[in-house]
Amino acid sequence: MKDISLQYISQGATPKEHLKNIREVCEAGGRWIQLRLKDTDMATYLNSAMQCREICDQYNTIMIINDNVGVAKAAMADGIHLGLNDMNPNEARRILGDNFIIGGTANTIEDCIQHSEDGVDYIGLGPFRYTKTKKKLSPILGVDGCQNIVSEFRTQNSEIPIIAIGGIIESDIKDLIQIGVSGVAISGMLTNQEDLEEKIQNIKKHMASQS
User: CA 9 to CA 34: how far, in whole Å?
Assistant: First the structure.
């Protein structure tokens, strides 16, 4: 897979705002985008995904769709991210094929092991801390919770990348590097922010230092 050290999860009050924010992140050097539209009808989601595809193509950016396998396939996304209550990764793989990236959310070591057995390409572990972007939030993990899960999962001899997710801010990056995550998924920290290019380069530089 392309560099997964920094993923941007889209945010905005409207689909138009999501796309505006995605373009700004791409312009600033973000190269992994997850389009995450909630409470949106299928036609709007698909139309937004097609526009997102154009933006990502322009900047040679990986495009992931949150939850919706049908939209991911129709918009020719690079992958899908599935929540704990979404479609099973095996079923998504059957529909989308071997060339699609499939990621899955995890909150426990059991979730991680199940994802490993289901053949996901990466695991989104969290929430790291409280985040307003998700309505039904799983238990907060924090540094200690993430560290315990990452350490135990690595004893299973699994090399699946683990991406920390949920309310992450810049000062968390050092701690997350130390516990051995492969990357971070960020939303608010990169939405409507000044010095966006500098923030993105700093995060990538810090994450690269662990490899």
Answer: 5
User: d(Cα 179, Cα 81) in Å, to the nearest integer?
Assistant: 23
3-state DSSP percent of the chain in helix, strand and coil, to 5: 45, 15, 40
* Cβ atoms of residues 98 and 137 within 8 Å: no
Q: Residue written as tokens 């094929």?
A: 97
How far is the C-alpha of 86 from the C-alpha of 84, rounded, in Å? 6
Q: What is the pLDDT of residues 79-127, one digit of tens each?
A: 999 999 999 999 999 999 999 999 999 999 999 999 999 999 999 999 9
Sites in the chain below the pLDDT cut of 50: none
Does the pTM exceed 0.90?
yes
Amino acid 137: pLDDT: 74
- Helix residue ranges, H only, the chain: 15-27, 42-58, 69-74, 89-96, 109-118, 142-154, 173-178, 196-208
Q: What is the pLDDT of residue 134?
A: 61
127-149 b/e (C-beta count within 10 Å ≥ 16 → b): bbeebebbeeebeebeeebbbeb
- Distance (Å, whole) CA 64 – CA 46: 13
Q: Which residue has the tokens 């699609």?
A: 100
Phi and psi at residue 135, in whole multiples of 5°?
A: -75, -50
